[in-house]
Design brief:
Largest sheet: 6 strands, mixed
Shape: globular
Distance between the termini: 37 Å
Number of strands: 16
Bound molecules: pyridoxal-5'-phosphate
Radius of gyration: 21 Å
Amino acid sequence: MMYHSTRSADSKITSAEAIVKGIAPDGGLYIPENIPQISLDDILRLSTMNYRSRACGVLGLFLTDYTSEEIENCVENAYSKENFETEAIAPLYELTENEYVLELWHGPTCAFKDMALQILPHLLTCAVKKTGEDKTVVILVATSGDTGKAALEGFKDVDGTKIMVFFPEDGVSRVQKLQMSTQAGANVMVSGVFGNFDDAQTGVKKIFGDSDFDSQAKAGGYSLSSANSINWGRLVPQIVYYVSAYCDMVKSGAIKLGDKINVCVPTGNFGNILAAWYAKAMGLPVAKLICASNKNNVLTDFIKTGIYDKNRNFYTTMSPSMDILISSNLERLLCLMSDEKEAEGYMKSLAETGKYEVSDAIKNKIKEDFYGACCDDDQTQATIRDIWQKYEYLADTHTAVACGVYNQYVNETGDTTKTVIASTANPFKFSGSVLSAIYDGDLSAMDEFEIIDMLSEMTGQKVPQSLAELKEKEIRFSGKCEKSYMPQAVKSFLGI
Ligand SMILES: *Cc1c(COP(=O)(O)O)cnc(C)c1O
C-alpha cells in the first residue's frame, strides 16, 4: 500500500519513506491511499492474543513494505517488559458499567505518547535501512510537554539518530520541564522557546519547509525528520490500542462481538482521536467519537459549526498537553472526508487568515462521527474529585477533561453505549492540580516533590519510579531562545 500527501496525490511513496520524511515536501501530511479493513473474525482472532501480537496484526495492515519479521522486531523492542510496567501494555479499567478507562501511561515517561514513541525509533531506523538513506536522521520536535520527553526517551542513544526538542518555556509543568532538562543520552538536545506551543510548532514546521536549511543539513550529512504526531509512524501505533481495547471488552464479556462502543479522547493535536477514527474506518464497531477539549476549545466549536477559527485567546490550563489552537492532524481528516485539493484550500486559508469553514458535506460527516465538548479547569478538578470520591480512582487532569465531557455527552443524549475513555497520563505527572482537586488545604508553600509525596500518602497510590528519581537528577539542559533563533539553535547542535 502506498502513501501520499494530504495536499496532492500525485507522488506516491512507501510507508517506510513516509516515516523517514515525516512531513511531505508540499507541507501536507502523509496518509495511506486506502484504509485496510478488519472483519469481526479478525477481531475475534486478535482477542485471543496479547498486546504485542495484536500490534503486529494491525501494523502489518498499514506498513505493507515492512516484512512481518521487521514489524515483530520493532514491536518486541518497543512493548517490552523493561519499557512497560504491565504485561497488558494498555490495560482497560472498568470504572462503571458503561465507562472503561484505557490506561495509556504505563510506559517510561508516564504519558500516552510512549505508546507511539517507544516504537517510532525502531520503525524509523528500520525504514532508514530499507530506503537506503545513509545520513544521520535528525528528529526535530515541538512539544507541549509530553511528546518531548517521550521522544527523548525513545530516541536516546539510538544509532544513526540525533534529536532536538523545543518546548514553550512557560507552557509546561515543572515535572515536565525537569523530565526534559535532565534527559540522558549522547545524541540529545533540549531548548525552551519564548512563546506558546503553537510558536514552537510553527518554528519547527518552518525549518522543515526551508529548502536552504535542508540543503545545508544534507551537506552536513543530516536528514531531517519529525516525531510529532504529523509523522505517520506516530499515528499508526495508536490505532492498535483502540482495536486492543475492543478485543479486551469482547474477551471479558463486557460486550458481544459486533456490539458498538463509543470512544472518548482528550484532544490536542487531534492525533489520538484520529487514530480512533481510523480504527472505526477499518471496521472496528465504534459509534461516536467524543472529542474532549479544555478551555482551548477550538475543536468543540469546529465540530459544532464547521468553522475552524484559531483567532481567539490562548489559555494556559492545568491540562497543558491539550493547550493547542492549531490541531495539525485535522488536516488528515479533512482530506479523507473530501479530497487533496479541498484540504489544501482549507490549509491555505488557515495559514492566511487563521480560519476556514468546511463544506456542508464535511460538516455532515463530522456530525455523524463526532461529538465535541469542553471542560474548564474548575470542571476538570470537580471531575477528579468526583471520580476519586465515588470510585477511588485517580484521574490526571487530561483524563478528567475526557471524563467531564463524557458526562456532558451522557446528560445531553442519554446514550448508554459502553464507552472507552482514553486516559493519557499518570496522575502523578500533574500532581499539583490533582492533589488540589481532592485536598482543600493550602499547597502554595510546598514544592513539586512534596506534593507528589503527599498525593501518594493521601491516596495510597504508588509514585512511578521515573518521577520519584527526578529529584536526584542533574540538570543537563537549561538553554532557551526566541522562536526566530530556532534554526540557528539546530545548526549549532549539529555543528553545521
Ligand atoms: C498529547 C497529549 C494529549 C493530546 O493528544 P493529541 O494526540 O495531541 O490530541 C492528551 N493528553 C496528554 C497527557 C498528552 O500528552
